[in-house]
Amino acid sequence: MIPDNPVGPIKKPPAARRTPKWLTRNEQNAFLREVRGQNNKRDYAIMMLMLRAGLRVHELCELLKSDITMSARAGGVYIRGKGDKDRVVPPNSEVRSALQSYFEEREDESPYVLVSQRSKKLSVRGAQHMVENYRNRTRIEHLSCHALRHTFGHDLISAGNDLQQVAMLMGHYKEDGTPNIQMTMIYTTPGIEDLTAAVESISWT
User: What sequence ranges are listed for the domain Tyr recombinase (predicted)?
Assistant: First the structure.
């Protein structure tokens, strides 16, 4: 009824900086338990490549068998990244095991790492739809392909890894080809789980 807002001139408190969405350790456990429960080795390999190697969804779909080298204790995943900024991510034991199990059951001749039932190459929409299905099953509202990649970055930082190493693994590069640490700094922003652990760390009980 009044023409002016009487609280309009009052400054609002500063808003907290938005943080990227990642999965907590409990959410990761619930999510991976659901994926393993489906007994689908392809789905599990897809999740490991995003969650434990940080691949973007389009990088995942473009990945060729020839881009991957693996041995019992080492290996490399050659990734054609955004803006022609390629990188190599050494797959950890979880990724190597998931890929090996998936490759052992493959009988097709597709050169791509990931295939669908109807195509020799998994589509971006197909990967997104699969993750959406798991989001509905687990009821983890922020579960997405991008959240899985963010979880990889956040977990690397939480484990105490050097920012330059994380930038290289995430594919964060400047125009001159050097690691873009500023872009990687977003993963140092604590989530609620990190803040809870911080206050618990000084509890005497």
Answer: 18-200
Give the C-alpha separation, 163 to 179, whole Å: 9
- What would the CATH number be for the domain defined by 25-161? 1.10.443.10
List all residues 6 or more positions away from 105 whose beta carbon is below 8 Å from its beta carbon: 41
What integer pLDDT is reported at residue 66 of this predicted model? 95
Cβ atoms of 181 and 167 within 8 Å: the answer is yes
Per-residue model confidence as pLDDT tens digits over 153-192? 999 999 999 999 999 999 999 988 899 999 999 888 887 7
Task: For residues 168 and 139, give the distance between their C-alpha atoms in angstroms, rounded to a whole number.
Answer: 32
Contact status, residue 53 vs residue 67, Cβ threshold 8 Å: no
SS3 call for 120? coil
- Kindly report the pTM of this predicted structure: 0.83
- Which residues have CB under 8 Å from 132's CB, separation 6+? 144
d(CA 58, CA 125): 9
Which residues are catalytically annotated? 56, 82, 146, 149, 172, 187
| Short-list 202, 171, 175, CA closest to 55 | 171
